[in-house]
Each structure stands twice: as structure tokens, then as C-alpha cells.
Amino acid sequence: MKKIAIIVGTRPEVIKLAPVYLELKKSKILKPILINTGQHREMVDQMLRWFGIKEDFNLKLMKINQTLPGLTAKVIEATYKVFEKIKPHLVMVEGDTATVMAASIAAFYLKIPVAHVEAGLRTNDIYNPFPEEMSRRLVSHLASVHFAPTENAVQNLKKENIKSNIFLTGNTVIDALLYTAKNLKIEKQLIASLPNFKKYRVILVTMHRRENFGSSHRAIAKTLIKILNNFPDTAVLLPLHLNPKVRNVIKPILKNHKRVFLIEPPGYVPFIYAMKNSYLIMSDSGGVQEEAPTLGKPVLVLRTNTERPEGIKAGSAKLVGINPEKIFKEASKLLTDKKAYRKMTHVKNPYGDGKAAKRIRKILEKQFMSMTLI
Ligand code: UDP
After folding, report:
1. 374 residues of the chain, pLDDT tens digit each
2. Are 209 and 338 within one domain?
3. Which pTM does this prediction carry?
4. Which of 86, 173, 211, 293 is exposed most, by the fewest CB atoms within 10 A?
5. What's the domain range around 286?
6. Where do runs of H (alpha helix) occur along the chain?
7. Distance from the alpha carbon of residue 84 to the mean position of ligand 1, in angstroms
8. Does residue 285 line the site of ligand 1, with CB under 6 A?
9. Cis before residue 129, ω within 30 degrees of 0?
């Protein structure tokens, strides 16, 4: 059996690699080994439980107020040691976190090939998103196999002179979403903490990007209050990210409004439930932009750029940035103009069809059989 060390550290990595792990489990020649760096502790455990997956290693690297260089150094060292011990034939990473970049460096130091899932996303601004844009660029040059979610991502890789082993697979986030939407079960207690979706048009908001910390988050929170005051049939549902740099800024502005529902991160399954029942989504999250078209929800992207232009082009998302006037204007339009709303909600998902993980398994099986990857 060829051992594939699958690395996860944060919530989106588990969501996007769980379908691949489960698919590789079915293989007769590949053996997945799950290594959790523990970059985000609580949010990762919830996800693993939902997908019925048990990690093989937990490196427990999360520390409160950890610095980026500190975390990066620890991930390189800790993953290097595990790789030395288990001797994987391939290391698989997904996306663009510190975990992804550091684990890829460790694999490279041991001359173990790296497979990168969700390869080729680019904003072409190395400081936005920070540090993700640089992480994914570095990983592209460390990796031997690139699973690109869209044609645009394939082209981005080619522009950087990466020529071989690029495979267009779709994004595995859609595999996870379709599985979850089919099995959606959430506790009554949790429903009670959410706004009444029949009574209000709910605006679901998520914010966590490092480059928006501080004044941008403050300005967005104030704009949400303005929207609520102008549209009395709306409510804001905002799962607070665990990072204190986010919650300490937006909580004081929003907590006293009676139509604001600030909740702890609800976990992936209730979050999908909330997305499905919301009227409109405002988010700086990458994964949310990819999921929303499958659920038929418009997204106002709270960022100045995005590495996911496909949704903007298809019409399911709009880049509104962090400018309060623009956010207010676009939200008002979607709350008043039915035609504009419909245009954003009836879009074919450009990110995938739910079969990406299967494609990845088949490609890897073929590569190992033909000894392209030893
Ligand atoms: N998500 C979740 N709970 C939340 C917010 C988001 O489970 O409170 C899910 C969401 O459905 C998506 C993923 O987490 O699949 C996105 O993660 P995040 O926004 O942290 O990271 P990004 O996608 O921006 O890298």
C-alpha cells in the first residue's frame, strides 16, 4: 500500500480534505494517514466528528496568541518528525494556511512528493490575503501534483511555469457540501439560538481575514447596524470567529441590537443549515463563496480582491470590499430589487460538481500504478 499523509490544521482544510480521505479509504492501493497539526483546535474536532474520521496523529500545536513565525517553525519541525517516522509515499495538503506551507517544506526537506489540493488560486497581491497568497504560491513550487478546482486555476499555474501534473478536478468543498446538505440534522437547542428564518430575512455574516482586522471590521459592523435600521424585516446572524482580534472589535458594536444574533461558531453542519435558510450572505470567507451558489444564495464579498473570480463572473457573488457605502448600497439593492436578487441566486456552481474527491483518488491510483510517483 502507498501511504498518503493527509495534513489538516484548520476548519476549511478538514472540510475540503475529508471527502478525499474517505475516498482514499476505498482504494486498494492507497492508504490515507491523517495528521492534524492542531492549528485550530475546537473547530477541527467538530468537523472530524461529523465526517466520522479519526486522526492518526494530533500534533497539538495550537497556543493562545501564537505568532505566525512561531507556528510555522513548529509545524515544519513537528511534521518533519512524523514524516520521518511513518515514511509516507506522498504528502497531501489543501489550500493556503501556515500548516499547508510548513508541512510542504518539511516534506520537501525529506524529498517526499507533495500533492496540493485546491491549487492555483491567486489574487496576484502578495499581501492580500495575507499570508495566504504567498503560502499557496510557495506550495505550488514545492508540490509535484496539483489538483486545480477550476480552469482559471489551471491557467494561473501555467502562467507560473508549472507545467506538469496539473489536473482539473473541481473543488472538494462541493463534495462535502452535498454530503452534508443530504444528511442535515441539527439540534433543537441550536435552532433556538438562531433568528426565526420565517419572521426575518436573515443576513448571514462571517468575518475573519487578517487584513481586515481592526478598522475594517469596525466599519463593516457599523454598516450592518445601518442596514438593520433601514430594513426592519431583516436580522443579522453572525457566528463569531474564535480569534479575539475579530470578536473584541465587532462584539461591542453589535451586541445590543435586538435583531443581531451573535453566536459561537456553530460548527459546519448548523452553518450549512443557516446558509440554506438565509436570505443573503456577507462574508470574507473563501469556502463560503464556493458553497453559496449550490445553495442558491447571493454573497457580498467583504474583501477588496478575491482569488475566486469564477463566482463573480458567474454572477453568484459581488465584490463589495470594505467600503461602508458600497456594502450598504449593494445590500439595499438585494433587499429591494427582486430581479437583481434572482439574478444572483440562479447560477450554476462554477466551483465543482461534487465528484472532485473521486477524480483525485483515480488520478493518484493511476500515477502510482504507472510509477510516476514513487
Ligand atoms: N464554516 C463553518 N462555520 C462557521 C463559518 C464557516 O463551518 O461558523 C465553514 C464554511 O461552510 C466553509 C468553511 O467553514 O466550508 C470556510 O472556512 P473559513 O471561512 O474559516 O476559511 P476560508 O474558506 O476563508 O479559508
Report:
1. 999 999 999 989 999 999 999 999 999 999 999 999 998 767 788 889 999 999 999 999 988 788 999 999 999 999 999 999 999 999 999 999 999 999 999 999 999 999 999 999 999 999 999 999 999 999 999 999 999 999 999 999 999 999 899 999 999 999 999 999 988 888 777 788 899 999 999 999 999 888 888 899 999 999 999 999 999 999 999 999 878 888 999 999 999 999 999 998 888 889 999 999 999 999 999 999 999 999 999 999 999 999 999 999 999 999 999 999 999 999 999 999 999 999 999 999 999 999 999 999 999 999 988 876 65
2. yes
3. 0.92
4. 86
5. 188-345
6. 11-25, 42-51, 68-86, 98-109, 132-142, 151-159, 172-182, 188-192, 215-230, 244-254, 268-277, 286-295, 309-314, 324-336, 338-345, 356-369
7. 32
8. yes
9. yes
CB 150 within 8 A of CB 172: no
Query: Best mutation site among 285, 303, 307, 308 for ligand 1, i.e. most ligand atoms within 8 A of its Cβ?
Result: 285
Residue 181 included in any domain: no
CA 86–ligand 1 middle distance (angstroms): 30
Domain identity same for 68 and 213: no
Per-residue H/E/C for 149-170: CCHHHHHHHHHCCCCCCEEECC
CATH code for the domain in which residue 60 is found: 3.40.50.2000
Q: What is the rounded distance in angstroms from the CA atom of residue 111 to the CA atom of residue 105?
A: 10
Q: Which amino acid is at 83?
A: F
Q: Is residue 177 assigned to a domain?
A: no
Q: How far is the CA of 341 from the centre of ligand 1 (A)?
A: 23
Is the residue at 122 inside a domain?
Answer: yes
Q: Which DSSP letter does residue 306 get? A: -
Q: Are residues 157 and 230 in the same domain?
A: no
- Same domain? For 329 and 363 the reply is no
Q: Are residues 11 and 159 in the same domain?
A: yes
- Contact 286 CB / ligand 1 (< 6 Å): yes
Q: Are residues 12 and 76 in the same domain?
A: yes
271 Cβ closer than 6 Å to some ligand 1 atom: yes
Total tally of structural domains belonging to the chain: 2
Q: How far apart are CA 350 and CA 330, in angstroms?
A: 22
